[in-house]
Amino acid sequence: MFPLNLGIRAHDLEVRNREEIVQKVSQLHLSHIQFAPQKAFPEQLKLNDMTLGSAAYFGEYFQKNNIELSILGCYINLSSKNQEVRAQALATFKQQIALCSAYQAKMIATETGSVSVGFTKENFTEEAYQIARNSVIELVAHAENFGVTVAVEAGINHPIYNYLLAKRLVDEVASPNLKIILDCANLIHKENHADQEKVIRGALDNLQGCITALHLKDYIMENGKIRIVPVGKGCLDFRPVLHYIKYERPLMYATLEATPEIYVPEAIEHLQFFYQDC
Fold it and tell me: Containing domain of residue 141, as a range?
């Protein structure tokens, strides 16, 4: 049986440079990272200033040290109603698509943002979906020129806010270069929290081959609201997704998210226990 292919977001670690990323990931016995350059090193890097050389500076070093760059994080607002804001976001993403091979990244990922600044109920409209869809079509068409996979992550307050819309997006874009990152915690809200098992099963059944990676984070209900907590400290049942990647999608990239470094060893132990047991 194949092992759990577990990684972590680089910006969830306390690091100052690429060397410290490799050191800490290796010490944790993880195999890959999600790397968002500007989030990992906000004072040193600006996405629009990245070049083939600077992308290779990271990508080649990670590869040389046996750390895969599984996901290039480029989380933009591709759904803004402000055309100027949206155009700039898409231009940034396209630039990063062109650098994917230099990073040696397996895919580039984003959520779908918001039609305005911050949360708004307008994100749940057909208009918001169409804006997001059209942006994704544009990005995927660009990615096809470079042989790059674009991975979109659904999120409860975004225009792609559930697994049915994620499936609709994949079907309508109809490109092998578009895939989905499944983050089950992103699909949970106070109204469906009690039906967590149904939500997770529905996502796995409907998305199937569309899923290219998993994000693993945990949550609790607190004062009627969802609060994200370190993996293993909440109430998310990871067994269905772990069973899925163990028996149906072996070695799929699974990435720890929103788990502070101090909690990472315990989170790994938690996930490994259920992976071995399922």
Answer: 6-277
